[in-house]
Amino acid sequence: MRIFLDSSGARPRPLSVVFFRSATGNEPVREWLKSLPADERKQIGADILAAQYGWPLGLPLVDFLGDGLWEVRSRLATRIARTLFFVNNETIILLHGFTKKTRATPARELDLAHKRKRDYENAQKSPPRK
């Protein structure tokens, strides 16, 4: 694990990380990670941790996708993984994760992340139900 220091040489406080939770209680990124082999989970986790401690980061690890969405770019042994997220109040919200073999991020993956971002933001605006 790399330790990131601020300009004074102090270790900055990392951002919090939470999994997006659907209205039905599912955590899609957590479920996706659990479905992967242990070595891939470990690599993706290390990359998310680097983003958490080093925020803000850029390429090659993190890329801006527009409209507040970012991606953690993980290189696995035989494929590429992407974990899409946004930052809200010093918290990384993990929205969507997927693996791919091509360079371009499929539109359906971006659309799903945008939908989950809107769902999260809308849930934050509305008061909790009793």
What can you tell me about this protein's structure?
By secondary structure, the chain is an alpha+beta fold. It has a single domain (16-125), classed as YaeB-like fold, CATH 3.30.2310.20. The protein contains 3 helices and 5 strands. A 5-stranded mixed sheet has the order 1-5-4-3-2. The protein is globular, with a radius of gyration of 15 Å. The termini are far apart.
SSE diagram, text form:
Layout lengths: L15 E4 L8 H7 L3 H17 L7 E5 L2 E7 L4 E9 L2 E10 L6 H19 L5
Parallel strand pairs: 1-5
Antiparallel strand pairs: 2-3, 3-4, 4-5
Short account of what is shown:
Helix content is 33%, strand content 27%.
CATH topology: the name is: YaeB-like fold
Largest sheet: spatial strand order: 1-5-4-3-2
Number of contiguous helices: 3
CATH class value: Alpha Beta
Shape: globular
Write the CATH architecture name: 2-Layer Sandwich
The percentage helix is 25-40%
Rg from alpha-carbon coordinates: 15 Å
Give the end-to-end Cα distance, rounded to a whole number of Å.
43 Å
Topology pattern, helix = H, strand = E: EHHEEEEH
Pick out the low-confidence regions: none
In the residues, how many domains can be counted? 1
Question: What attributes does this structure have?
Answer:
130 residues, alpha+beta, YaeB-like fold, 5 strands, 33% helix
